């Protein structure tokens, strides 16, 4: 059974579809104060992927023409009235909008990202448990260290060499599958005691017959 068939969307109304955006040379606008950590991080992240970034520090300065030709807009202030205005502009000019911590006003939800060379893992808890998402991110980031990046680089070098050595796509695919044999990834979660106690309370008590 797929996740979509079991997920209660009335209980979790702001679960977003995960997707990656190609923003190279696309106009992106970040709206947020100079000392806003979210705004600073988003500007840096957008520039890292080659976006054409405009940073507007005061949302009161936003004009229609500032966003009319934008592809993606990130709004970081927490005030709702300007977020409502940004949503109206997004509907009017058809740009993608992310309203940080105000998902009902946007179309895009930012996700915690693990980076290791060219690899990216996006993590989202649907805004329900951001600290849990942070712990997942930290654990995965620690695992995907410089050795992993080196493995990915070597794997890619093998792939490029196989293009010259192997003639058919089926053979190239089989060769790369073989190169991944032996790679094992283990994931372990330790839960807090209060949750373990709650689980224990939910388990049925089974009394075994001593005879």
Task: Provide an overview of this structure.
This protein has 211 residues and is of the alpha/beta class. It folds into 2 domains: 22-110, 3-Layer(aba) Sandwich (Rossmann fold); 113-180, no CATH class. It has helices spanning 3-6, 37-48, 64-67, 80-93, 130-143, 146-165, 169-180, 193-202, and strands spanning 27-31, 52-56, 72-75, 96-99, 112-116, 119-123. Strands 2-1-3-4 form a 4-stranded parallel β-sheet, with helices on both faces. A two-stranded antiparallel ribbon has the order 5-6. Helix 6 packs antiparallel against helix 7 (169-180). The longest helix has 20 residues, at 146-165. The two termini are 42 Å apart.
What layout of secondary structure does this protein have?
Blueprint: H1 3-6, E1 27-31, H2 37-48, E2 52-56, H3 64-67, E3 72-75, H4 80-93, E4 96-99, E5 112-116, E6 119-123, H5 130-143, H6 146-165, H7 169-180, H8 193-202
Parallel strand pairs: 1-2, 1-3, 3-4
Antiparallel strand pairs: 5-6
Shape: globular
CATH class of the largest domain: Alpha Beta
Mean pLDDT: 88
Annotated CATH topology of the largest domain: Rossmann fold
User: Which spans have pLDDT < 50 for at least 5 consecutive residues?
Assistant: none
Number of distinct helices: 8
Q: Which class of secondary structure composition applies to the elements?
A: alpha/beta
CATH superfamily of the largest domain: NAD(P)-binding Rossmann-like Domain
Please give the domain count: 2
Sheet having the most strands: 4 strands, parallel
Which architecture of the largest domain per CATH? 3-Layer(aba) Sandwich
| N/C terminus separation | 42 Å
Q: Helix coverage percent of residues?
A: 40-55%
Tell me the strand percentage band. 5-15%
> What pattern of helices and strands is seen along the backbone?
HEHEHEHEEEHHHH
């Amino acid at each position: 059974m797929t996740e979509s068939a079991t997920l209660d969307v009335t209980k979790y109304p702001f679960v977003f579809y995960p997707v990656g955006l190609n923003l190279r040379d696309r106009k992106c606008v970040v709206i947020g104060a100079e000392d806003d950590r979210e705004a600073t991080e988003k500007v840096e992240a957008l520039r890292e992927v080659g976006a054409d970034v405009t940073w507007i520090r005061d949302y009161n300065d936003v004009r229609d023409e500032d966003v009319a030709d934008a592809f993606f807009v990130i709004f970081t202030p927490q005030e709702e009235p300007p977020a409502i205005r940004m949503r109206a502009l997004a509907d009017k000019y058809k740009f993608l909008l992310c309203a940080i911590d105000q998902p009902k006003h946007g179309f895009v939800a930012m996700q915690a990202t693990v980076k290791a060379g060219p690899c990216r893992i996006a993590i989202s808890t649907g805004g329900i448990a951001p600290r849990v998402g942070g712990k997942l991110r930290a654990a995965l980031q620690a695992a995907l260290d410089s050795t992993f990046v080196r493995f990915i680089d070597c794997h890619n070098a093998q792939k490029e060499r196989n293009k010259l050595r192997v003639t058919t796509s089926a053979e190239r695919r089989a060769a790369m599958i073989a190169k991944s044999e032996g790679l094992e990834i283990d994931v372990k979660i330790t839960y807090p005691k209060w949750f373990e106690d709650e689980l224990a309370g939910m388990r049925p008590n089974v009394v075994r017959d001593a005879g």
